[in-house]
Specification:
alpha/beta; 2 domains; 5-stranded parallel beta sheet; Rossmann fold; elongated; 5 strands; 9 helices
């Protein structure tokens, strides 16, 4: 038996939260949900509930998705973040995706939600093979840091960084630096800069 997916809902509208929970149940996705609607509650839930995925409305009365996304990328960088919004303009959508959101689902098209969650979890599954130090090295490499800079920042030798990078590529099945950076952007470890 697989353990249920831990889904954190950042949603201040109870009706919309029920819509999302109903869609998860309808699809027979084994999920445990927790709903929050403020930054302090969100920070607590990220630390204590340890979600496998975050589903967030774009704009709440006391908080918003871009701020929540920044917290997730800092505290739980491998956790998928999906925007579930009533409506969103093109610029907001692009900003969310560039900021590291996995997907944007409109509530009017909620049936896409489970597919989006499944895809996000599948894409990130290889990250489970990495140690926390390897994840740190991967992020620094993808941000464009040189090997010596990474070694100095982590207080390790250049050889250790090279060893980590080689093991990361092996575990992720990637063969060059470009693929490594592409993967890091895809899973939200680094964001697109414009």
């Amino acid at each position: 038996m697989t353990k249920p997916l831990r889904v954190l809902l950042l949603e201040d509208n109870e009706t919309d939260a029920n819509l999302i929970q109903h869609e998860l149940q309808r699809s027979e996705m084994a999920a445990v949900t927790e709903r929050v609607d403020s930054e302090p509650e969100f920070r607590r839930a990220i630390a204590e509930f340890e979600p496998d995925v975050v589903l967030s409305d774009h704009t709440l009365a006391r908080f918003n998705a871009p701020a929540a996304l920044a917290i997730v990328r800092t505290v739980r960088p491998t956790t998928p973040f999906i925007i579930v919004a009533g409506s969103l303009n093109g610029d907001s959508t692009i900003a969310c995706i560039r900021g590291g959101a996995e997907d944007v689902i409109l509530k009017s098209n909620i049936r896409r939600l489970v597919t989006s969650i499944t895809t996000a979890m599948t894409v990130r599954r290889p990250l489970e093979k990495l140690t926390s130090r390897q994840l740190e090295v991967l992020t620094l490499v993808a941000q464009g840091n040189r090997t010596r800079e990474i070694a100095n920042r982590l207080n390790v030798s250049v050889k250790t960084v090279e060893s980590h990078r080689g093991e990361i590529m092996k575990r992720l099945g990637l063969h060059d630096l470009v693929s490594l950076v592409h993967f890091s952007v895809r899973v939200g470890l680094v964001t697109w800069n414009t």
